[in-house]
Amino acid sequence: MITVSEFLRWVLYRTRSIYFQFLRRVMRGDRLLWRSENKFRALLEAAPDAMVIVDSHGHIALVNEQAERLFGYRRKELVGKGISELIPKRLRTQHRHHVKGYQQNAATRPMGSGLELYGLRKDGSEFPVEISLSPIETDEGMMVSSAIRDITTRKRELTDLRTAEELFRGAFDGSPIGMAMADGEGRVVRVNHALCDLTGRSARDLAGQRIDTLAHDAGADHDRMVVAALLSGERDQYKVETRFEHASGTPIWVALQATTITDEAGAPRRFLIQVQDITHRRHYEENLHYLATHDPLTGLHNRASFANQIDAHADLVRRYGSDGALVLLDLDHFKYINDTLGHAAGDQVIARVATVLRARLRDSDVLARLGGDEFAALLPRATRQTAEQVADDLLEALRAERIAVPGTGRRTMTASIGVAMFEASEELHGEDVLVSADLAMYDAKEGGRNQVAVHVHGEHAQARMSGRITWAERIRVAIEEDRFTHVAQPIFDLSTGAVTQFEVLLRMLDEHGDMIPPGAFLSTAERLGMMHQIDAMTVARSLRAVAAHSHAGLGRPRVEINLSGSSMGDPEMLRIIERELSETGLDPSRVIFEITETAAIANIGRAREFSDQLAKLGCRFALDDFGAGFGSFYYLKHVRFDILKIDGEFVRDCCSTLTDRLVIQSVVDIARGLGKETIAEHVGDAATVALLRELGVTHGQGFHLGGPQPLESFLTDLYRHPAALA
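The structure assignment produced for this chain is given below.
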C-alpha cells in the first residue's frame, strides 16, 4: 500500500523530470536558433552581391559588408533606415508602386524587369544596379532580401559595344568599297550599297549566295578553291585580284580581301569580305605594259620585247630541236625621205609599212619595229622554204603598195630582207639568230637591194661570206679608218630664241663617203660590243672642237653628247671624260652627257652611279627620250639629272592631242619643281613652238628650229654671230 508521503515524492520527482526535459528542449532550441542565425549571417557575408534585408515596413533590418562598400555607409548607419535612402529621389515614387505590387505577389524574381534601376550612394552619386528580390517569412511578418549588383562596368561595355556596332555598321554601309558579311558556309548575309553598285545586283539578289559565284568564268575555279580553304580553316584570310561578272555580263577587275572571324573555339563563324573595283587601274597597268613593250608609232613590238620573244623561242629550240625563222627587213633609201621631207613624212611611211607587213603575217607570227626603218618578224613554225616564201610575200606586198608621202604624192617602197633559221645548238641565243639575219640583210643590200637573202650556216656560208664585208666588218673598218663624222643640231631657248647649246650626232661614212644614219649601224655596233670605241671617239672629238672655238674667246654654248647604255658607268669612259676635260681646259659645266631613258631603266644602279660621278667632275646629266620607257617617275627619285629631254613622240602631235599636252605639262611641272630644265625634241612647226612656250618648256630642238650640220661648220657659223649665243 502506498503511503501519502511516497505519493508526494513520486509526484515531485515526475514534476522535476518533466521540468528538466522541458528545460533541455528549450536550451537545445536556443542553441539551434543561434547556430541557424550564425549560418545565415555567414551566408549573407559570403554573398558576392550587396545584400539588403528589408522588413515589412520598408526599413533596413540587415546588410552585409558588400552593401557597406557599395553604398558607402557603415552598417549601423543603414540598419533601421528606410530603403528609400538608397534610391535616387527621382525614382522613389516608382519604387513605392513596385513595393506595393510585390507585396501582393511576392516571389523570387528580378526587380523592375525591363526598367533601368539606379542606386544612391552616401556621397550622393548614382550608379546603375541590377536587383534580385527574394521573400523571407518570419514571425514578425514577411521580409524581403535584395541582392544588389553594380552594373556600371557592364553598361559601359554594352554602350561601348553598341557604339562599336554602330560605327562598324556605319563604316560597313557607308564604305565606298564593296563589303559583304558571309556566314560560316561562305554565304552572304549582309552587303553594303557599294557592293550592290559594283556588281549591278540588289542586296536581295546577293543574299544567300557564295561570293565565289560572282567570279568570272576565267577565275572561278581558283576562287572556289580559295573559299574552300577559308571554310575549312586552312587559312584565315586571303587577298586576290580577280574578275567578277557584272549583272550586265561585263567582266570587272576587283581586289578582293576576305578575313575570317572566329568563335571562342577558333572555328570560322563569319567572313568579312572587301571588294574594290580596280578595273581602271588594271587597264592603266595593261596600257603601260603595252606602251613599254610596243613601238608607239606602229603598235608593233619594240626591240626589248622582241628580244624577249626570240630568246624564249631559242630556249624552245634548244630543248625540242630546230624550228622557226627570223626575218629582218630594212627599207631601201628611207634616209632620203627623212632628210628631205622631215621626220613627220618618215613616220607616215613607217606606219603604213607596218600595216602592210602585219597584213601579210599570221597571228602566230611576231612582228616588231627594231628602230628607225628596221623591222623584224619571228616565224615560230616556219621551215626554210616557208620562211623564204614569207619574206618574198612581204617584199612583194611593199612593191605593190603605193604609200602616200606628204609633198611628193604616192611612192613605192622596197626593202632589203635577211632570213635566218633557228638551228638547234646548246649555245643558241636569240641574239645569235638576229645577228645572222642582220648579216643576210646586208647581203641583200650588197646585192642591189630590193631582194631577199638567206643566211647559211657551215662551210658553204663561210665560202659565200669570204668575198664580202659584213656590217660588223664595215663598222670595224670605219673605226680603223676613222670613217665616222659628227653633225650638230642647235637647241634653242624658247623664251629668247637664242641658241644656248647643241647636240652632237653621230654619222658613219660608207666606202663612197656617203653618210649612213646611226639607225643603220648602232644596233649592230651595240650587239657586237663596239660602242665603247665609238663613244670614246665621239667624246674626244666633240670636246676638242668646242674647246678650240672657246679658245678664240667666242661665246660659251653648251654641248650635249650621247652615250650608249654600255658606256654608262664604265670606269674607262669616266677616265676618258676626265682626261679630255683636263687636256682641253674646257669648263665642265658646259658639257652635258645624255643617256636614253630606256638605258637608265635597264640599270638604275649604274645610271645613278654614273650621274653622281659626272656631277663630281662638274658635268651635267640629261635623260634623253623622257617618257619613252614609262618607268620615268621611279628613276627620277634615284638618278641625279639636270635636264629632261621630252621624247618626240609626245611633241609631234601635242597641238592636236590632249594626252600629249598633259604628258608634256606633267614633265614640265616635275622639272620645274625640282629646279631642272626641259628640252622638247622633234619640234616640227611654229604652232608647236608656241604651245611648248605656253606649257613652260624651256628649250626646243627639231628640224623646224634647225637641222643637223657638220660640227665644224656649225661651230664656225655660230661664232660668226655671237649675238645668237645666250
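Interim note for the steering committee: Residues 4-46 form the longest helix (43 residues). The radius of gyration is 48 Å.
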